[in-house]
Design a protein that fits this description.
It contains 7 helices and 11 strands. By secondary structure, it is α/β, with parallel strands linked by helices. It has 2 domains: 166 residues, Alpha-Beta Complex (Spore Coat Polysaccharide Biosynthesis Protein SpsA, Chain A), CATH 3.90.550; 77 residues, no CATH class.
């Protein structure tokens, strides 16, 4: 039996600034698939120049958009990325070395998250980002949920881990971090509205100190100076903003 085939899958919406660098780091894959969601910039030309298989369309939710790309991939395994993520050479070599003997399932990969050119190692999670993701998986072993923000994921098979890390350029600056807070809380309120949830003030209030403590102290965001403080505030304000937006929507 030959080595398993690897598909690299990238998802983009007007990502001409990031897409080329992203695709250059996954050239080691057997095929590259790019999902272009309502792109009006040069993303299509960049993907074509990289020799990628293109999937073009318009999706309102993350899950269907991701599955459109997953279904197009022909590889046994899929490495799923966003356009602002990069695969260093050492991680690429590790992936190639591990896949031939990997049990069916998925790999958890650590993330080095950047805000601008600042590497921010501590304080991620609780709505504002992740320190690791299962973004390498055998086809058919990962399913995306239908939520607008932070879709629920289902995995099958064995979970393994890699020592290499993906470089993730999360936000251009702290202003972009807080803009993302506003966008995510709006989408979360719409998800809650669709689910028929009632606005609940007390749980939202209770989470302000607990979420801040979890990120700023428990996850050592204090070690990152103003960047860690911003992540703590992001985590603390998210449930309250979601509550306020849901309550407003319920009142018409």
């Amino acid at each position: 039996m030959g080595a398993p085939r690897l598909s690299a899958l990238a998802v983009a919406h007007n990502e001409e600034r990031n897409l080329g660098e992203c695709l250059a780091t996954v050239a080691f894959a057997d095929e590259v698939v790019v999902v272009l969601d309502r792109c009006t910039d040069g993303s299509r030309d960049i993907a074509e120049a990289a020799g990628a298989i293109l999937v073009e369309g318009a999706w309102d939710r993350e899950g269907p958009r991701r599955h459109a790309g997953i279904e197009t991939c022909s590889g046994d395994w899929i490495l799923e990325l966003d356009a602002d993520e990069r695969v260093p050479a050492e991680l690429a070599a590790e992936i190639r070395a591990r896949l031939p003997t990997a049990p069916p399932g998925h790999f958890l990969i650590g993330f080095d998250n950047y805000i601008g050119d600042r590497l921010v190692r501590h304080g991620w999670g609780a709505y504002n980002g992740v320190s690791a993701k299962a973004c390498l998986f055998k086809k058919g072993f990962k399913t995306w949920g239908g939520q607008r923000v932070h879709p629920r994921l289902q995995f099958a098979g064995v979970r393994s881990e890699l020592s290499g890390r993906i470089r993730h350029y999360v936000d251009a600056d702290l202003a972009a971090t807080f803009a993302r807070l506003n966008r995510y809380s709006t989408l979360a309120a719409l998800d809650a509205l669709d689910a028929g949830e009632k606005p609940r003030l007390w749980p939202a209030l209770r989470r302000i100190p607990s979420r801040f403590w979890k990120v700023y102290v428990g996850r050592r965001g204090y070690r990152e100076g103003p960047w860690g403080l911003a992540l703590g505030l992001f985590a603390a304000l998210y449930p309250m903003l979601t509550y306020l937006k849901l309550a407003t929507a319920k009142r018409g």
